């Protein structure tokens, strides 16, 4: 493919606007998603350029820059999106790179990879992403959105880069949906050129307004709730990156269904004991009784427990309860009544839980009925998984519209918005299962995405549950996850963990 990079066309201007308090809870990182396609013709590049042009026409903020400023009400370090002055010319909206000796990622082949294989899979490293640094190197504007087309021997990898303070993962997933629509039908005129932008700005103002109204109508709490605290990891200037390993794990649908059946059975045993003895498995009377735990709850609990055990296995002093703290990212779109599912901005909170095996177990001990036992997981481990999953579900039930408004009020009271999110949790799980990337049609030139990969997340103790794949031949799709741990802990995680065992050797090292 010899088509040169397309120069940036004139972009429709827009009025600058401030990012929300929720946008400021996320570190100012520039993230990338990798979309792999099996075609690499010139028509593919034409379709991508047309799609991006149509997308930017609908949402001109994508060609804008993020700057820091002081808001009219005196808040410091508030991020604002402004029309780009120079960056749009310095960093093209769509870059192109050729990797003629690489082939597109293939999870099945990479799992089975042996030293005899001749293919060199796409490295998905810095050479594959738009020329924008992960973290700010110096003060100044940062782009909102950029892409890079990577042309490989057997297809192409499209890197979709976005400023995380502008979009969360769900919002970025929605952008990919919009891009697919524009690539498939460049002339689609479903909405007027200004309606999408107006709606997005209106919703962002609504987020801050909800916080301000709640702050005015209620007095400040003497102590802020730790469970509702909204934070995200950022990097400090003196932080030294440890040696990290990133692995992907793949689980058959039947394996996950069997685990959920067992955990649901254990949950009924726990609730029977509660009914008999009036004893709660989680020491928090505020937690409502739950009759249901989801597959996502169970996988989150399992990976957190295994990460804690892997870490403590490498430590001489394993009584460090602090390392047992985990957080799970929660999408607020279905919990905050004012936000629709189409909202692009950051709409996340967190729940905190303790993944120390002894802290999650019910007291007094509960016996698991024989009919609820798992064929390969020991009863004690199954009880730990279920009890932590239940704790997660109970905390999720506490996040509703009023609680979100209280959190927004707390954030809106802050005067320095650079201090919104600075805490790096010991373990963090984020589920992207709901992203619809594998079902998207990008049109006749590109077709459908065959592999979706996140940029390697170099945060120790981070797990990403991957988007659901399109089912084949009527079979249910399995589950996939990426786990990042320090190298020594990852060795124990792979050898001794239930999470790794259940994947039945469907494990691949993420080469990025």
Automatic annotation (TrEMBL):
Q: Which domain of life is it from?
A: Eukaryota
Entry GO MF terms = acyltransferase activity
Q: Does the keyword Transmembrane helix apply?
A: no
Note the Pfam families from the entry.
Transferase
Q: Which UniProt keywords apply?
A: Acyltransferase, Transferase
Keyword Transferase carried by entry: yes
Q: Which PANTHER family does the record associate with it?
A: FAMILY REGULATORY PROTEIN, PUTATIVE (AFU_ORTHOLOGUE AFUA_3G14730)-RELATED (PTHR31896), TRICHOTHECENE 3-O-ACETYLTRANSFERASE (PTHR31896:SF64)
The identity of this protein, by name, is Transferase family protein
Whose protein is this, by species?
Answer: Penicillium digitatum (strain PHI26 / CECT 20796) (Green mold)
Q: Write the lineage as a comma-separated list.
A: Eukaryota, Fungi, Dikarya, Ascomycota, Pezizomycotina
